[in-house]
Protein 1
Amino acid sequence: MDVSALLTSAGINIAICVVLLSLYSILRKQPSNASVYFTRRLVSEPVKRSDTVCLERFVPSASWIMRAWQATDEEILAVGGVDAVVFMRIVVFSIRVFTIAAMICIFLVLPVNYYGQEEMQRKQIHAESLEVFTIGNIKEGSKWLWTHCLALYVISCSACVLLYFEYKSITKMRLAHITGSPPNPSHFTVLVRGIPWSRDHSYSDSVEKFFSTYYPASYVSHQMVYRSGAVDKLMKDAEKMYRMLKTIEPQCKVSSMPCCLCGGTTHSFKVLNNEAESVQSKTSVDGLQPTRREKERPAAFVFFRTRYAAVVAAQVLQSSNPMLWVTQLAPEPHDVYWSNLSIPYKQVWLRKIATLLGAIGFMFVFLVPVTFVQGLTQLDQLSHTFPFLKGILKQKFMNQLVTGYLPSVILILFLYAVPPTMMLFSTMEGNVSRSLRKRSACIKVLYFTVWNVFFVNVLSGSIIRQLSVFSSVRDIPTQLAKAVPTQATFFTTYVLSSGWASLSCEVIQLFALLCNVFRKFILRIKEEPSNCALTFPHHTEIPRLLLFGLIGFTCSVMAPLILPFLLVYFFLAFLVYRNQILHVYVSKYESGGQFWPIVHNTTIFSLVLTQIIALGVFGIKISPVASGFTIPLILFTLLFNEYCRQRFSPVFKRSPAQVLIEMDREDEQWGRVEEIYNQLRSAYSQFPLISQDLSTAVNSGHHEDKESSQDPESLKPGMIAGT
């Protein structure tokens, strides 16, 4: 692949970005798209819609870029919580470290790579192969390899220093989140699973007896987890339908506008506001459900008087049988994934093994499309396998398109199936909270993308070769050292396609936009939907950022030409993600920055992998001095990681007793204890009773729009009738 093919790929992606970003700046000004681009505002406050037509609405502008640039971390924290700030710190960290890397590698390493073969005949820049800009162009025994070793030291030390300060800052932010937030029911609540079955007592009686006996001073009460019945599901479906139609007036209205699908008139719905009928209906369905004891599951939320007592109960082994009376701190009420609480605890470890095997199997099945994609980058093999393509591939533009743009696009299309699959695996694991499920999916997607996008593409070839290349651990540095420089061109085009273009698709929200167009112009529904709130997709975006970080670290010294394109991606990501957090995504639950340890560990892995690859390259190029200086750098990076693990990681696993006891004392001083006790039981109500009168909610207009950002489990079932 030559420079002109790279410029072709860059030109295509730049054109796509400019078109989509310009289109976004126009679409966001249209009132009909408020539910797509201003979701946060819709669910938090009523928005007055203005249909005034003016020329400014149809002219692209950069106002959203200025708003995203000027937003502070305090604003991000206020609207998105700690997790949003942590995500943006990933982007900021990447910008800082790769700015340093670009400065030293572009001005020091790149010229050394280009002039590494003094006797080689030079071509014009646009006709040069990209391999002449890599470390592979340097002859063996060259004395100029000290520049690469120096750049490696500068990048590694800069990354470690920045990582330390980021870890320290986010740890303080997590502690401030724990101490500064209002009393959280999850701090006083312990989730108990594996409750032993008794013929003489119900699960509820067993919980009451156990904790009253062993925690008499701190135990308050408990809330059992119940099995969802058919009637419960129907009530939830009715509530969802109600929320979809709650903006309609509580009387029947027949629209004269024909429906685009069936040609008939559209009908609205009215809410049954007869309290007697609601009570009668509730009484009738109660007779259809099993008794409360029959619906109880071996899981319960147990409430304690203090935070410290809850933490102690959560961390202590409750029984001589570790599979019984298993305790952990409860997730936040809106974070609970109720359906997984019914899973017997003894099945959890089997589910984790099964999902792990399924994820590994999926990773190996994905080798087929990745191998196909890599075949497109090798024209000689492609022409030999498909002789009828020889004539087409001789055309210059088609040659550049196939080698520079098509492989990364095909790989991206295949990768779209990965996050939903990994989220399904994480759900089947039995995670009891939505944040844990998303964190588990994030780790799975990260492992998947690092293996299939990086390692499999680097060690491209037949599947047998990809599996046998790791047969000897001793040969790994050498194999990677030979492969990474040759695959740097593919990674550069991947950054352009999966990076630049994906950010443009993210900001334009294509799927939500198409759904909105279908709803407004096909179904003729003018009211804004009340259930349009989306949470931030950490499980897709964090792995993408970390993958680009891995590619940037490994290629910075080997093929520094990728760094300018990578920096453009991170700067664009800074603006796009800030805009999305401020206007689109809604925080339904908070993990308190639990994603940062994943980021730290992956960055350390990327640094060590980069140093191992550099060690292999220095060995191939016969540079014992550079190799000798690289080994201490690897040891220093591992020692730094161990220090951070001992210094900061425990805060993300356990809450400090000192902080919890001080918070408990403050509650006693301010007289908030009774108020907290009153909130505990209602906070973890699995099946809330039917609301007083749903017509009251309708008459309140947009007052309840804020509630639409809650999880489905927290919604109150209602009754709707069509007219």
Note: The beta strands are 189-193, 219-226, 254-258, 265-267, 269-271, 296-304, 326-329, 720-722.
Protein 2
Amino acid sequence: MKGGGVSSSYSLPAKRRWKGLVIAVLALVFLSMLVPLVFLLSLHSGFHSTTGYGTERRNTATTPIKVYDQQDAHTKNQSKGIGNTSVKETRNDSKGFPILADLPKVTPKSSGSGDKTGEKTAGADESEVTCELKFGSYCLWRREHREKMEDSVVKRMKDLLFVARAYYPSIAKLPKFDKLSHEMKQNIQDFERVLSEATTDKDLPSPNKKRLTMMEAVIAKAKSCPTDCNNVDKKFRQLVDLTQDEANFHMKQSAFLYKLAVQTMPKSLHCLSMRLTVESFRSPYDIEDAVAKKFLNPNLYHYVIFSTNILASSVAINSTVVHAKESGKQVFHLLTDRENYYAMNFWFSGNKYGDAAVQVLNIEDPKLYNHPKVAPIHLSLPGEFRVTFRRVDKLSKVQFRTLYLSMISHSLYLLPEIFQSLKKVVVLDDDVIVQRDLSGLWNLNMGGKVNGAVQSCAVKLSHLKTLLSSNNFDENSCVWTSGVNVIDLSKWRTHNITRKYQRLVQETNNGEELSETTTLRASLLTFHDQVYPLDDSWMVSGLGHDYGVDTEALKNAAVLHFDGLMKPWLDLGIPKYKNLWKKFLNTQNHFLSDCNVNQ
């Protein structure tokens, strides 16, 4: 008996422990289902995750800025108090100036003849405008890749099921129509069963025509019944709301996947970066003295590229050298971060680009600067902005247009400190290709200006007046863009441009982290009256978002700028422009072949 008593006293806690284990397992299963659900539901709250280039931490997310054209008195009244510069789709993973933290990335201009900013007028279809305001260039991509509805029978069945569900609740409440109610219920269940198993016409069972005829007949009978229209109307509205919610959900989900595709590094490029980094430690490389002297020679043509993308920077350099009349005079300074320095250094030391010299620098290396105690410096890449205008004419017609602009990063303001022996440099974005000799840029007489840049006169400083929050500028001045910039470092030092930029940033930020719009504002005001306008033929932009760039402009431009999210090295790149970029890529390189890059 005592033994039995003892065993029972131990059996009760064992059962409790067993029940506790079961509860814990069920809780874990529940949480594993809840986490993906929360992730999907979070899509409804918008996408503030950044967009960026596939292989870089570059802020390629477009920053939307809402501004208003001031065409007449009525429009001016409309624009009062409107200066809400909404910053969405931005990313804070770029690295830059000591006092800066977060920078915008810009979507460049559409090229073509007059307007270089990638203008999109959409007065006719406001739904497209609303989409672009909310989701940016995803809507441009979706419009180009929209597929025609080929499964017409399935679509017809869904429409009939939609109508039948609207009428059924009202018919079911009428006792004298029990037979019709029962018949309608059977048809609805039959349609639901078929559509749950078939998504295309070829998946439908063969006697489908009879099924459609029966449903149409039932709906016709229901419409002839004396039903309460308010109930039917209410049901229709409920179904419409549900359908709209579902469509919005899929739209947001699709936009999220689009952004994920342009911001995530493809496996092949990750493989390339890792392989090159490993090889760089296996095979150290020393720079020849003759080549090292070129890096400091102010009489040569010096190009500066900020990049973390091996492929993009390689194509930009290769295309420049291929079209150069004297490649031996070309020197390229590639500024990258610590993470990509070793891979890039190995790549450019092992690949020759004509007679040009290529120097890879780690911008985070304190040895680049004269100051013994320098604050941590991080790399930032050119930014991209989406500017939307609303025009209101005297007839109260609302018309929208969207422009894309690119802007230099705050890392550019370190150039005079890094290259103290140089007098002039040409800054290239890494998402460009060169189609003709650029030596003419070195012979430009910029009239004492600091920055030679292509302008986008579709956007004037008056349009950004609220953003700039200053009256010390000419409202008729055009906005300039990055891509190709001729920088006179001597004049830069004379005017102390870097200090001016830092002061403007500090005035706006008040010690807080740098925002995208702050960088745009500070850069535009810093170079006000210091920009020399380059001829439009020097650069055509928009190849990363504009499907309609003028063909003649593409042929005649010296530089093509793939600004936007649809970069040519990504699967989402615009197909008709990708070949222009790929022809400067050496696909026979064994590292590219091993990692299946651009195969």
Note: Confidence is low (pLDDT under 50) at residues 1-12, 39-61, 66-124.
Protein 3
Amino acid sequence: MFLNCPFTVMLKIPKFAKNLQSFLEIRVFAVSPTGFNRFCNDTAFNDKNGSDSGTEWERLLKPFDLPELRASLVRITPYQLCKLLALPLDVPTSMELFQWAGTQKGYCHVFDVYYMLIDKLGAAGEFKTIDSLLMQMKEEGIVFRESLFIVIMKHYGRALFPGKATRLLFDMRSVYSCEPTFRSYNVVMDVLLAGNCPKVVPNVFYDMLSKGISPTIYTYGVVMKALCLVNEVDSAYALLRDMMKHGCVPNAVVYQTLIHALSKIGRVDETLKLLEAMLFMGCIPDMDTLNDVIHGLCKMLRIHEAANLVDRMQGFTPNSFTYGVLMHGFCRMGKVDEARVLLNRVPEPSVLLFNTLINGYVSRGQLDEAKAVMHESVSIGCVPDIFTYNALILGLCKKGYMVSARELIDEMQIKGCEPNVITYTILIDWFCKKGRLEEAWNVLDEMTAKGLALNTVGYNCLISALCKGGKVPDALNMFGDMPSKGCKPDIFTFNSLIYGLCKVDKFEKALELYQGMLLEGVIANTVTYNTLIHAFLKRGELQEALKLVRDMFFRGCPLDDITYNGLIKASCRTGNIEQGLAWFEQMMSNGVNPTSNISFNILINGFCRTGNVQGALQFLRNMKYRGLKPDIVTYNSLINGLCKMGHGLEALKHFDKLHVEGIRPDSITYNTLISWYCKEGMFDDAHLLLNRGVNSGFIPNDVTWYILARNFTRERDQEFWTLFEE
């Protein structure tokens, strides 16, 4: 853009015609690609009187015009032009000098001149001008050197043009007849990595190999880092073995890159192997690398291995991150006392470490210990912060000590720590969970008076409580207020409202809200669908429920055991046991293994209700084969089915199995068998079973007495009419 600009030069040289010749004789320090050096010892650059180093040359230079320059100078050489271009002149002035020198008779620009000018243009981001100069060099027959392209690539990188740097690399050979070496490839891969283009780095690397250019250890380090950034950790790992073929020995950077990536994805055993290999090769890991391994072990709850590794690494001093990770790991395992022992080893524990320990005790319900840790932190001058108080307030709320939680808020304010939105949200949440909505509203008023606004979590707490309490209109009003308060409803908001609407039989409104959440970009989850599906099943609208099931499949939302159990139960209720079994088999084939006996019990009860007792017994054997133990619900369903089919003796055999399997019969068990005895007219046996149950701790209920009274009355009536007829 400057090649055709009008000639108005701003070289700051007083009487340039008289002073330029002497100025050019100054020994200036400059570095060019050819390696020539000149050390500046003139007063123009080294003021021994203590004045600013740049003031002398500023005094020598002032604006001049071209006619004066032409009238005063006979000739300027490429070497002298390089010295001028090395000065901190602006780009237009540098271009004017370059163009003017080129007009001299017998003068030809050399590579060093182009290098100096292109470097300055690159720093100014004048890449179009650089392209023009490169073509000019080609036309003038100047031999290109790799160093020129490297400097341009670096400028492309600083300007965030990684694509242009890559294009220039490929043009070096084809356009400019300059063979790139590993240096050019390394620079381009660096630029791509810095420019957030890690996916392109491996392509450049494989192009390098295809051209027969041997990579360096630095090359491998960059490529491995790029592969790890795009989650191609196995490919990066494979390069570790490939390095030896090219005579490269892994260094600490290579090992650290791989260890960090493997640790992030939980491949802890491999990180340990790499750490051992690293030490074997004489590479010393830094503390961050060790922390990566320790963090990985702690995430897998291999806390003692992590602690042993810390003790093993002689010469390394664990930092606060190391202790924090270990303490957090111990707390997750419930070994909070061990975390406390570890805290005592920290020379200067921070409030963050104390908070980790306090959270650990709070999660286990050990409030006294948590308070003791807080007092200990205060005794060593570590002031509790908002996270400390929030943890303790949460612990008090979990225990139901709401008054104490409010008192702690007052205490923290006295000590200069103001409660934040999270503090008040904890109180609102627990007041809502305990059904104390009025007090939750009082907390909301208090935080509003302090200029704090509810966040989405706070709204969700109140909306959920209102819906559970049947106050759905109030919940919908709060929902309507959220956008104006800067809160975006999330999946928990919609799920609470859909549940509340289904609870009060507002199914059309619930479906409308479901459609609305999809339009808002909130993706329905399994809880959403389960709420709607069970609402339809409860109303007997199986086909509407199945439409939602198909919608779940279409949207990739997984069905869980709650979904399947609802469908199995609905099928069994209509007597369609085969369909219930089909849902059960689909559940198992999809990897949704039942965590309880609910699915089995529903099906066994379904078999018994349809009179297929043999099917129920077969399914019971299937249940045991899958490793699940029948419970009292299972046996009650089976005993009831057998009694209804007139197989009371078989039912009694299963009743005896209860004692063998350590299952205690309940009132349903006794009432079912007593009822069967009575129907069969075996009143003495019914009386014996009742006594046996009472001796075992069974307390007869209203149903028990009703069965006995009704059947004894019927027996007496029958005896009366028999005597009357005689």
Note: The radius of gyration is 42 Å.
Protein 4
Amino acid sequence: MGFLSDTQNSVKGGAGGNCAIDALRTLARRKQVDSANDKSSGHHGLARALTVPHLIAIGVGSTIGAGVYILVGTVAREHSGPALTFSFLIAGIAAALSAFCYAELASRCPSAGSAYHYSYICVGEGIAWLIGWALILEYTVGGSAVARGISPNLAMLFGGPDSLPSLLARQTIPGIGIVVDPCAAILVFLVTALLCVGIKESILVQGCVTFANICIMMFVILVGGYLGFKSGWPGYELPSGYFPYGADGMLTGASTVFFAYIGFDSVASTAEEVKNPQRDLPMGIGFALSICCTLYMLVSAVIVGLVPYYTMDPDTPISSAFQSHGIKWAAYTVTVGACFALCSTLLGSLLPQPRILMAMARDGLLPSFFSDVDKITQVPVKSTILTGSLAAFLAFFMDVEQLSGMVSVGTLLAFTMVAVSVLILRYVPPDEVPLPPSFQEAIDSVSRRRNIGKNPVCDAENETYSDTSGKKGPEIVAIETSIDFPLLEKVTGKLNFVMSEEKRRKIAGWAITVTCVGVLVLTSAASSASLYSPLRYTLCGIGGLLLSTGLILLTWVDQDHARHRFGHSGGFICPFVPMLPIACILINVYLLINLGGATWTRVSVWLVIGVVVYTLYGLRKSRLHNAIYVPTAHLDEIYSSSILP
């Protein structure tokens, strides 16, 4: 039996020097799931100190920002009306689709890096780099935007917009008109220092702040509910009914409030610091998202019931709703809650980024400076200080409000690739793994042992190991057997099974590709309202046909048996595959396309910079640059051979 895999076949077939194919093969190279056998990493590990309560604090604290205190008024007035609660429910269900996908991959591949890590294992290095690069932008701009939102809320507590002490108040630099925000920069530095102390201490503080924010939200729910029952819920007694904007308005509101659920993915970035990731990560993600959805729905149900939706103040909906019932002091309580929410979200924004940089540096795509872990605190201190300083600089000098839309691109791209990774893991998991050149001797030894006693036939094709540079390793000869001997019929049956498995993988791989193309065509056509109607409907039909074809094929084709052995076993299993991941891809791609041309223009500039950085550094410095790919079936034998004297 030979050792060749599909990728190795392509290396042999591309010996003529096809540069384009070689480049695509380089972008598609995939790394191995971290394991005890992976001796080449040589990095100092992070502290495994987190449990389910810590993960819930991270998820809830990173998700519930000050937006909920404003979002309910804007969406209710313009889109949903009293049906705002259903908009939050639909958005929560859509976010849960991504949460299911994250939960499976986080428990199977519990290492730092989140979506970047999963994409590198399942999709390839090129896509993983773009995801990691986009997440860097997301967390940097997101953290800066959150920090600049804190000072106006603090000023309200002191009596008005200009009530902060001069040392903390916003100032305009004469001549250039730049508005600097010292308060935002100081808060970023304080959070950065906290993150450098240790992961457990940081999460303890975030948990306390998040708990205070939840208490204020419970105040809004309980006191608002009392006022609603006392006044007869005037917001629901309207001639326009519960759905004044119809089902379309409710769905439009759901697509808007969906971004209020962004943040639970921060839980996955701490996978390497969880004591029992197979059990705790899925529970942490699930509980955090459930708590957020419940709080959102209760707050929205109370507020839209206190006052008619068309009279809501879009800037201060909760405070104005309480003031209409004679409770003016509630404005201070809501402002305190907004400050707590922003501080917790700031910590949640700055926490994942150093870990993503660390994961990329471990893989050789960034300088090793970013992968250094402090031996005392067991956190990536250098990366934390650098990212915190950059976020503080942006928060101090720049009004990042126009860049805030770019935050959503990184998140939605990550959500999409995580769902694609689940499909790949289930149907076409990697059947070969990269090993560093230091394993060459062990590979040669295994290759020689498997050739002992075998007589190659004259027409047999020699099979070889190959590395990503195109070099061939020791030859392994494929043996042809004759079915004239009954004893060999079982062997022949196994070979036939291998051929059928290869065909199944090809069908599944094409089905995933067709599904993704169909989603892209369908969502692009559906979002192009200015497109000529017949052409638009035709493209929608083509996209829907491709999507349906891919879904039917994936439903018909068996999932790969190797998925049970992929990564760390015993964790969460995503249900309703392939339907659930495909629905997740469809929702996220639709939201991506509808972010607007200006946002995509800015993001494209950032991604082009990322391509340049990858081409000049990561492409050649990658740990997989000279890796030797071997079939997964023979990995244990190679590892055993490498430790023999």
Note: The CA atoms of residues 434 and 629 lie 4 Å apart.
